[in-house]
Input
Amino acid sequence: MRPVTAAQAAAAAVLAARLARGRSMRPPLRAGHALPPGVTVSAVVPARDEAARIGPCLAGLRADPGISEVIVVDDHSADATAQIAARAGARVLAGEPLPAGWAGKQWALQQGLQAASGDFVLTIDADARPRPGLAAALVAAAAEGPFDLVSAGPRFRCDSPAEQALHASMLATLVYRFGPIGPARPPRPARLIINGQCLLGARRPLTAAGGFALGRGQLADDIALGRALAGRGWRVGLLDGRDLLEVDMHASAAEVWREWPRSLLMADVNGPFAQAADLALLGLTTALPLARLARGRPGPLDLGLLAVRGLLLGPLRRSYARPGAGLWLSPLADVLTLARLAQATVRPARTWRGRTYTGPGPIPPRRPARARSPGRTRSPAPLPAGRPGQIGRASCRERV
Output
């Protein structure tokens, strides 16, 4: 067997094992839950120059009966973000100057966490479109998981076929690398992913653990936070939230091309070997079969991998508010996507919203301490204020 063929067969086996996780998935988030008596949720929205997008986000949060307060942290916006947020009924905080070593979003989230009063804090991006019931569904998921930090994957809005084709091609790379959303068995911390567009955790334990300082300098801040907490023994979950959350991430295909690869390969938290392994897997299972098909010389394994990519379009269809021609043509963009990701790996972008970050480098997960004797169960590193899931867990199970 030729070396390339052997490598492709190995990559196909790894891919098959990851996709097989889809046979056992946690249920998607659904509306209809009620918060336990006395349990409150604060929503925190970090915002920098979001006047054009923040209105629908705030309207959705204000319409959610499970949210007791909405806090917008205005990160030195040059537009009318603060005024729009105030008119929408949000509590607006003027962001403090950015400290050295912090990225803007994480610093805004940290200020929001410190100002919040709810038992749980829901952080949500300004380009998100939450629906009523999201907060209670996340609290219920945290209790039932059980999870100490829970995240929701959204349904995406794309404004053109070209944008959807490129976006869906890039989204498929996440499935190839990490498997379907909501696995029943949590991955090891080094392979964990969450979605920073929507996170919920109990306020006091999250604050005691350091809050968003755990990802303070990373552009892949959500992954850094999730992996750091999972390495300390926290139970971290990513669930399907498409029925309760939509996101309009980019304004065009050009913006998808320019912006998403900045964090898609997670260079801040993945070492060079992990990045190279991910690129190799994508190249062997997507780009190589397409190239051989274009030359008229596909082998049986190539055809099988192309069939897998085609079958993936079915599940991906549910990830878009208006799936169209761009989705079905997205496999043709896989070669371009691989080239763009490779470029972003060699020359990672460190600029976002007019700021340039140096970043502190990868955060290695810290494993929970092992039990000292066989008769003791292993427990995570102690947190000063207790575990997040302890807040309202018993009452959540009674009511949801």
